Amino acid sequence: MASLKELRGRITGVKSTRKITNAMKMVAASKLRRAQSQAEAARPYAEAMRRMMAELAAATRGADAASLPTLLAGTGKDNVHLVVVLTSDRGLAGGFNANVVRSARQLIDSLLAEGKTVRILPVGRKGGDILVRHYPSMIVEQLSGTEGKDVGFDKASAVGAKIITMLEAGGIDRCTLVYNRFVNAMTQIAVQAPLVPLPVAENDNAEASDAAQYEFEPDEATLLAQLLPRNLQVQLFSALLESAAGEQGARMTAMDNASRNASKAIDRLSQKYNRTRQANITNELIEIISGAEAV
What we know:
Elements: H1 4-59, H2 70-73, E1 80-86, H3 96-113, E2 117-123, H4 125-134, H5 153-168, E3 174-184, E4 187-196, H6 202-211, H7 220-294
């Protein structure tokens, strides 16, 4: 049985931990409000940009694939795939990083099973450390994430420039982004979003059919060459904002659960402490009474 001193030490330690988790929950909650508003504000712009690219892409149907930008049509091959994985730089966020890494590994393993060559570009230390252990020879470069700070467009520009450089050099044929899409503080959904070649859904084709009747100035190919790199940066920036909001939401939820568990542990230890203390007092009284009777 633990002594009263040991129990007091445990209670003190758990209370200190609860103070830390409560403080981290409050910090995450304050950051979440800002990150959530930024992510929600970026969604309409990213969606509008995607639809505009779909309209321009529809207007180029029938054109020679070799004359189209590689960001639109790819390299014409399907051999080398780049998987960009967005995670956080810090932990204590529940299953936030594990979920997106699990989704990335499923994609990577399926591509390898099809005989494809896979390159991995981790953005974020936590996910990068895991992927380096499982796929050390496939890592192109390990980039830092947002480091818990506000997401800047320069981060998306740097990642986009890396992708474009590899694409133009013929190092990759396709690119897919894996990240956590923010739903609410308790829910983040791992998403696999194709970036290269430009995805055009069936409903986008129908919507873009009328848009293709318009005349573009300058021509569609010139517009695509100018706008496609910007679209790539916008989609990456939106994903980074979604990931940042999801990270803060996951951390707030994880720290709230940790604080609740700490409170339960304190109650159990306090109950055990009181019972042990009462048992010690009872034993001392029995010893005193026994001694008095012996006299």
